[in-house]
Amino acid sequence: MAASPADIALPVHAEITDDELTEIGTILSMWRGINMSAYKDKCMKRRVAIRMRSTRCHDAAEYCNLLRQSPLELDLLQKALTIHVSQFFRNPSMFDKLREEVLPGIFSSCVKTGAGKLRFWCLGCAGGEEPFSLAILLKEDFSKEMRRVQTVIHGTDIDAETIRTAQQGEYVEERIKGVPASLKDRYFRRNGAGFRLVPEIREMVTFMRGDITRTKEYLTSDLVVCRNTLIYFARPDQEKILHGIADILPSGGILVLGKSETLVGDVRQRYEAVCPVERIYRRL
Hints:
Elements: H1 18-32, H2 41-54, H3 60-69, H4 71-82, H5 92-113, E1 117-123, H6 129-141, H7 143-148, E2 150-157, H8 160-168, E3 170-171, H9 181-187, E4 188-191, E5 194-197, H10 199-202, E6 205-209, E7 223-226, H11 235-248, E8 254-257, E9 271-275, E10 280-283
Parallel strand pairs: 1-2, 1-7, 2-6, 7-8
Antiparallel strand pairs: 3-5, 4-5, 8-10, 9-10
Helix pairs in contact: 1-3, 2-4, 3-4
């Protein structure tokens, strides 16, 4: 009796070497424009190994051959390496701090200086949960201020398919479980098995593909949210990214990092802490 697919043992792989990871990175760079060298090796090796196991490749050489022949596998590997799962209003205390202390100051300064426009940017925005959470917060608590100050929200992510998904504003219930019931009723509509944001919120955010390692392409912003993204990068690239953000923030501009992230290296001299607990910093 023939064995079923579930009974067939998957290949056991030796640890991926640095040279093998470099070759895989070269293929990704050539065909997808992804710079894998900036990411932490252990994280990348683990995720590549998962894809190798899924494709039943016995070694890195076989997997490299598959990558050269299969655009689909290139897409799947890119998604495995860059995916960031998120939720609406993740870490609610951070959004409370923005509402109560940070955003009032940003709007007040903008009015005083007569700037007339504010730019908010979420790097590594995944499916759009974070920039849309910010949009809902602004709509709920700063509608009056936004009538006086043009407010722009951008979300960028390296994965083009993820950006297309974010633009739809459609989410399964798990992703919106952090949304208070009153806001859920006001800003989401049932759509099949999931929910879709109302147009007035979807239209507040502009999504674009962007590579966080390309600091010269950064958007001039007044507030940058970059949470749970730096942890995937090696220390030198973390410093490069943080300096890049400092370069596009004005004096007094705000940077928000994830709870497990912090400022590193001499970039610390370019910021002061607004709330160390919530990893909120002000550009000096």
